[in-house]
Amino acid sequence: MSPSPSPSLFGALFVRDLRLALRRRTEALLPIGFFVVAVALFPLGVGPEPQTLRQIAPGVIWVCALLAAMLSVSQLYGSDFADGTLEQLLLTGGSTTLMATARATAHWTLTGLPLVVAAPLFGLMFDLSPAALRILALTLLLGTPILSLLGSLGAALTLGLRSAGVLVILIVLPLAIPALIFGTGAVAAVDAGQSAGAHLSLLGALLIVTALGVPPATAAALRIAVE
Amino acid sequence: MSSQRLRLFTFAAPSRFYSLSGSLLPWLWAAAALLAALGLYIGFFVAPTDAQQGESYRIIFIHVPAAWMSMVVYLAMAGWAAIGWIFKARMASMLARALAPSGMVFTLIALATGSFWGKPAWGTWWVWDARLTSELILLFLYVGYIALVEAIDDVRRADHAGALLAIVGAVNVPVIYFSVRWWNTLHQGATITMSAAPKMQGTMLTAMLLLTFAFWAYAFAVVFVRARAIVLEREHDAEWVRGLALPTRVAARTSS
Amino acid sequence: MNWGSAGEFFAMGGYGVYVWGSYGLTAALIGFEAWLTLRRRRRALCDALASASSEAPR
């Protein structure tokens, strides 16, 4: 059997991941559930004063999105690693980088995209202005793929380890800090009546660099874990 | 040419590293102690009081060297780990593992002394200044690396995975630093920077440089000791290790 | 010489707590690290020695 040509390898893995996740719908929704609960904790912890909530909103939503993304990322490769499918996939000779990209994209579709849709609703809970909400959604749209990509690298590094869940968070969070800063900075800028252009450009640039640089690293990490 | 090949090749063998480092260690410890003594003497008894910060500035004699070391050690760690991974050089990987805890200790010292230095100036034990915050993130990078390599049982996998993480971290450090500085300046009204280092008089600079070299010597010493421990732990089956046992048992040296 | 008396030296112009706190903490961390590392090496040598002698032909 000749290895599948690249586009359909990506497509095949992507569709497979979605199909597997949709079979266990509740598990797929857990990160979103976590996000909802975590975000709701902050007003409870900080107090309902609208001024305060408006100020902390972008940060809170971004951090919770980050944590929610990291929660589900270990499962990305976990089950395939356990039953040997991952090794088989790596042996097929197809581009491991492409496989890593497909996985990260699937993760983003399942965890990141719903967050992009859901987040502005929480923006309303925190009394953000419409302009700020728009920017928030945009920063999440640019930022959640970064989180999924970084998360997939973390998952590949911690493949099969007992404490993979916490370890991934520990490893990935420092790397995600620039995205966090630019993402929340954009919303804060709009809130203050300034332009978010610079922040968004930086975030966009970060996304491009991450999308180009992280999948090969993830591929290398997978090979390290499996060999 | 052949001497270069000899140098690379012989260093690569754990046994050679073990004996080489063993002979260097007494000198390294001595150098560290001497340089520190000299640096501290000049720092406390020769360098004058600072006009703005009074005597509290004397903390920089350890804060700045520690911060430098924390960054240099991270780069060295990433470098050796990369060499170990790419060239499958076991000794290089062992060096990387030996460097990590020391780097973390330097980072902790930098953070703690930075905190002590900032308190009289700012009234709080912590300031979210760009440099201190970046140092904190460097601590997280160290913790992440150590946590990862300690969590993986298979030594080779641990070494290589750590190498990848260290490289990714090293590449990210400029990005992180830039973003933290960005973050520090854009929040209205809060342009918090640590009091700039005092205009360094000659003697102050001398003291700081001496202590920097002292930290270097100490770092080499302690990293060598740790690397020797790792070599023994991993190579305990080897012939040359059995040869070690008796002499060292008899001559219990503190240089270890 | 900067200091008139030992008292002045320890007081550090009022910043004594901060200066000596920093130096003390640094010394403690470095001492602890050095001690732990030396202990680790000694232990590794003992373990290697033990496994070597247990396998050595009698």
What would the keywords be for this entry?
heterotrimer; B: 256 residues; mainly alpha; 8 helices
Describe this structure in words.
- The complex is a heterotrimer of chains A (227), B (256) and C (58).
- By secondary structure, chain A is mostly helical.
- Chain A has nine helices and no strands.
- Chain A has helices at residues 6-23, 25-46, 50-73, 75-82, 85-91, 96-125, 130-157, 164-191, 197-226.
- The two termini of chain A are 23 Å apart.
- Chain B contains eight helices and no strands.
- In chain B, α3 (60-86) runs antiparallel to α4 (90-122), α3 runs parallel beside α7 (202-234) and α4 (90-122) packs antiparallel against α5 (130-151).
- The two termini of chain B are 33 Å apart.
- The mean pLDDT of chain B is 87.
- Chain C is rod-shaped.
- Chain C starts with 5 loop residues before the first helix and ends with a helix.
- The A-B interface holds A 153, 157-158, 161-163, 167, 170-171, 173-175, 177-178, 181-182, 185, 188-189, 192, 202, 206, 213, 217, 220-221, 224-225, 227 and B 137, 140-141, 143-144, 147-148, 151-152, 157, 160-161, 164-165, 168-169, 171-172, 175-176, 178-180, 182-183, 186-188.
Which structural class should the secondary elements of chain C be placed in?
A: mainly alpha
Share of β-strand residues of chain C: under 5%
Q: Count the E strands of chain B.
A: 0
Would you tell me the overall average pLDDT of chain B?
A: 87
Q: What percent of residues of chain B are in strands?
A: under 5%
End-to-end separation of chain B: 33 Å
Question: Gist?
Answer:
Chain A is mostly helical. Helices cover 86% and strands 0% of the residues of chain A. Chain B has helices at residues 2-12, 14-46, 60-86, 90-122, 130-151, 155-186, 202-234, 239-250.
